[in-house]
Amino acid sequence: MIRLAVVGAKGRMGRAVLEQALRAGDWEIAGEIDQGDPPKPALARSDVAIDFSAHAFSTLIAEASAEEGKPLVVGTTGHFPEEASRVRRAGERIPIVWAPNFSTGVNLLFYLVRKATAVLGGEFDSEIVEAHHRGKRDAPSGTARRLAEIIAEVRGLSLEQVARHGRSGEPGPRKPEEIGIHAIRAGQIVGLHTVLFGGPGEVLELTHRAETRDTFALGALRAARWVVGKPPGVYSMEDVLGLT
Ligand SMILES: NC(=O)C1=CN([C@@H]2O[C@H](COP(=O)(O)OP(=O)(O)OC[C@H]3O[C@@H](n4cnc5c(N)ncnc54)[C@H](OP(=O)(O)O)[C@@H]3O)[C@@H](O)[C@H]2O)C=CC1
Ligand SMILES: O=C(O)C1=N[C@H](C(=O)O)C[C@H](O)C1
């Protein structure tokens, strides 16, 4: 049995992880950490923790895991740059899988978008559209941010300079280097990401649709199994899936 701590256990994702862990049968739930719980006792009892909480708390969890010497899987999104640096620093002491999206399809989408951007080149405009449930706190989604980073990396651009979050008023003609990012919030949408490449006389759209949270929960459990025993470092879900 692998002893697991779930951070944000009462949340949408925390509940999905607990359900899938119980179903798998080889996990012992050693701790559930939510508002008001001190994290360290539960981390100390566990072989690995999975965090789906909120950016500030997730940063504290990464630091507490490093102090306890325990591996960690971070699924939380929306970290501010200073928080992200602290998570990376924790990864110098323990192994961390940190991914904005644990579904296999989205990690394949990352690969396909890298390839499409390289093949299509600067003649094609890139726009990202994401849609999520009304309860989501951060925007754009961590997955949309990662998709934008990938396009910027391949095109040798600084994302800060070329990201265009929505358009209104009179933005004028689109600049070729812009990467448009658009967030929709409605109802119970689990997760939808489309990358649209618009070129001369044609449009290519790559879409991933998460149908239930099980895809994220199963991916996070797969990452947790993988990360136990790894050397310190910050790993991606693409590393876990062997896509790198
Ligand atoms: N990487 C991936 O594949 C995925 C990532 N996510 C990300 O996971 C995160 C959680 O999503 P979701 O489960 O939908 O969100 P929820 O709001 O449903 O759950 C978050 C949980 O964390 C708890 N929490 C928040 N702040 C704290 C805190 N300071 N201390 C202790 N507990 C806290 C919440 O408690 P309370 O309600 O009392 O505030 C809640 O139980 C988000 O960042 C989301 O973007 C989501 C899906 C997939
Ligand atoms: O908050 C969510 O629900 C999700 N968040 C992740 C993100 O921000 O990319 C992943 C998934 O799309 C669901």
Automatic annotation (TrEMBL):
Give a Gene Ontology cellular component term annotated to this protein.
cytoplasm
Its EC top class is: oxidoreductase
Has UniProt tagged this entry with the keyword Oxidoreductase? yes
Q: Where does NAD(+) bind?
A: G8, A9, K10, G11, R12, M13, D34, G75, T76, T77, A99, P100, N101, F102
One Pfam family, short name: DapB_N
* Pathway where this protein functions: Amino-acid biosynthesis; L-lysine biosynthesis via DAP pathway; (S)-tetrahydrodipicolinate from L-aspartate: step 4/4
- The protein's assembly and partners: Homotetramer.
Q: What is this protein called?
A: 4-hydroxy-tetrahydrodipicolinate reductase
Quick one: which gene encodes this? dapB
